[in-house]
Design goal:
The protein is an alpha/beta fold. Helix content is about 40%, strand content about 20%.
């Protein structure tokens, strides 16, 4: 991957502080002033960063405000053109810092700030339609370290660089955070201790009346910390408790303490026992079908933290600040949970995972699996891809790992293109446990009387219901309607999608011969040298099992 940096200002590409961004990927700098250019675009793996310092563009001595507005309009037009023709993600950083006279600014918004507000508003409007566009308010991140320290007049006069070495370091680190989230998934589970973590003191020793949580003193710090945790929960992060305690004591705090921000319904799992916390984490990972690299561990006890680092190496262990008053800020600033968009599914995630745990528990109590699945009244529904569910579609493509045949990570513009030119659909699911929302995405390509399964993925939350079999049956129905003779599936091995390969094996797919593969790839103009996928052909003469769960007779 290449990171292409463009700016209205010279960026001093030899400065050592670009190393934070260079650690992420290879950097390529354009000549300064070359903003929103379509030159040297790498259409496969590239990310464009455009840094706009409005003082390089605006004429502060021009009293005709409309002239400066036209400059912004021209800049926006150039950006829109780039977004149409450049398939890669684009990050736009904006700054309007200038030295102001306090008296002049007391009743009048300064021109630079006014133009910046106008520009930012238009940029954020563009992000609603162009999901590959990301915005960075440079002045806001510089303000944390001090604007005067991050800008440097001397650099500007000597080399036309607006920022200082500290400014470059701050830019480098902030841009890296955005890039990390563009190419990788956020963490999904926050694992928390109770005593001296959710509240001050030890519940077994101090009792509910003496633990510290409230509206003043140290108790206020724990109260504010819980407010941040609640915010994360409302954004779709799962909260689980891992505490060596008597469960009844912990539940009493949740049920009776007036200042508990977190409620029992906010917690997806209570692992309150005396066994090793690493064992609890491993059990939880299986229960909610999430890998441990999705987990973040917060515990005031350094011994417990070190044990998790050794025994659960994929878990991200946070080192809490010595001063509990900084915990709320520390958790807010932790970017592992950050995400660009919050969907309806995110908001309901705690309920969905609780439903899954209840589903697994009830299923284990039935002797006959099929009878149990019939009893829960599973109702799948096919949906078309529209603007209202596009974010959820992309979210599944980017995050689904276990049941994902091809592991293709399509973005918004790619999904729109696929939906326009091929057969794409979503699957929504409900049963007695509630509405699970949109849980599957399928993309089929009709190629020379063959149905090619380009993408077939499904949320791990609904595994165990044989929904994948029902979806395959729907694919066969589409194939017959199109009078296709064959159904071919692409499978790309990843570290986590073994279950998807088992699905192919158990549902009458067989690996195609090398000669068949060469002919098929030629038909679909598919590169043999670059792609490491395997291709499987469905034997339609055999039955697809378990369809009676969905009220369909076997043929």
């Amino acid at each position: 991957m290449i990171i292409h940096l463009r700016s209205t200002s010279n960026l001093l590409n030899k400065n050592i502080n670009w190393k934070f961004l260079a650690d992420f990927s290879k950097l390529k700098f354009s000549e300064y002033g070359e903003i929103f250019s379509l030159k040297n675009i790498n259409k496969n793996k590239s990310i464009e960063i455009n840094l706009v310092f409005l003082n390089d563009i605006l004429n502060i001595n021009n009293n005709d405000f409309s002239v400066e507005v036209k400059k912004i309009a021209k800049l926006l037009k150039k950006l829109k053109h780039k977004l149409i023709h450049d398939p890669n993600p684009v990050i736009v950083g904006v700054s309007a810092f200038s030295y102001i006279n306090e008296v002049e600014a007391a009743q009048t918004l300064q021109k630079e700030q006014s133009i910046k507000n106008l520009f930012l508003n238009e940029l954020y409007k563009l992000t609603k339609k162009n999901k590959k566009l990301y915005i960075l308010d440079i002045d806001s991140i510089f303000a944390i370290h001090g604007l005067e320290k991050c800008f440097d007049n001397r650099n500007y006069y000597l080399s036309r660089c607006r920022v200082s070495s500290l400014g470059i370091e701050t830019l480098s680190k902030s841009l890296k955070k955005i890039l990390n989230r563009i190419v990788s998934n956020n963490k999904k589970v926050l694992l928390l201790d109770c005593d001296n973590t959710l509240w001050g003191g030890v519940i077994a020793e101090d009792g509910i009346g003496k633990i510290k949580i409230g509206e003043e003193g140290e108790g206020l710090a724990f109260y504010e910390f819980q407010k941040v945790i609640k915010k994360l929960k409302n954004q779709g992060i799962l909260i689980a408790l891992l505490s060596k305690n008597i469960k009844a004591d912990v539940l009493e705090v949740f049920n009776k303490h007036d200042f508990m921000v977190l409620k029992k319904k906010d917690i997806c799992s209570f692992k309150i026992n005396w066994q090793d916390k690493s064992q609890n984490i491993k059990e939880l990972s299986k229960e909610i079908d999430l890998n441990m690299d999705s987990f973040v561990f917060w515990d005031d006890n350094p011994i417990e933290r070190e044990k998790i680092k050794i025994q659960c190496k994929d878990v991200d262990v946070i080192e809490p600040d010595i001063d509990v008053s900084n915990w709320a800020k520390q958790l807010l600033e932790y970017d592992g949970f950050s995400k660009f968009n919050i969907t309806k599914t995110d908001i309901e995630r705690t309920i969905q995972y609780k439903n899954r745990q209840e589903f697994i528990s009830n299923k284990a109590n039935y002797k006959n699996e099929i009878d149990y699945l019939k009893s829960i009244k599973i109702k799948p529904k096919l949906l078309k891809i529209k603007d209202g569910n596009l974010d959820r579609t992309v979210q599944m493509c980017q995050k689904t790992n276990q049941f994902n045949l091809s592991s293709k990570r399509y973005n918004h513009s790619q999904i729109k293109e696929l939906n326009k030119n091929h057969i794409c659909f979503l699957v929504e699911l409900s049963d007695v446990y509630g509405n699970h929302g949109i849980v599957s995405f399928v993309c089929l390509k009709d190629i020379e009387k063959k149905i090619f399964i380009d993408s077939f993925l499904m949320s791990c939350r609904v595994l165990g219901r044989y929904l994948e079999n029902w979806i395959l049956h729907e694919i066969i129905k589409i194939s017959k309607k199109k009078k296709s003779k064959e159904i071919i599936a692409e499978f790309t091995q990843s570290l986590k999608n073994k279950i998807a390969r088992e699905f192919l094996k158990n549902n009458n797919f067989r690996k195609v011969s090398n000669q068949y593969l060469k002919n098929f790839k030629k038909e679909m103009n598919y590169s043999l040298s670059k792609n490491k996928s395997e291709f499987f052909l469905l034997d339609q003469s055999k039955k697809i099992d378990y369809l009676e769960i969905y009220g369909k007779k076997r043929k």
